[in-house]
TrEMBL record:
Family from the record: Belongs to the BolA/IbaG family.
Gene3D superfamilies associated with the record: BolA-like
Protein name, as recorded: BolA/IbaG family iron-sulfur metabolism protein
Membrane-crossing residue ranges in chain numbering: none
Domain of life: Bacteria
UniProt-listed Pfam families: BolA
């Protein structure tokens, strides 16, 4: 799976303000910013992202996905 394919899958399931992906095709690191995350704890956010991948984690299309998730306000505070 390419970074663009993975980005498209996530963006199709979650309205994202920003997505950055780095990886080698199986192991990925993502930074995801979405207003959807407002009021959610980290685990809820991660589950929402994993849900966008469907069974791709079980079929090993995506072997590993580490992520940082932010609301737009949290992201703005990070970049200041």
């Amino acid at each position: 799976m390419t970074a663009d394919q993975l980005k498209d899958l996530i963006a199709a399931g979650i309205a994202c303000d920003h997505i950055t992906l780095e990886g080698d095709g199986r192991h990925w690191y993502a930074t995801i910013v979405s207003a959807t995350f407002v009021g959610q704890r980290t685990l809820q956010r991660q589950r929402a992202v994993y849900a966008t991948l469907g069974n791709r984690m079980q079929t090993d299309e995506v072997h590993a996905l580490s992520m940082k998730t932010f609301t737009p306000a949290e992201w703005a505070a990070q970049t200041d």
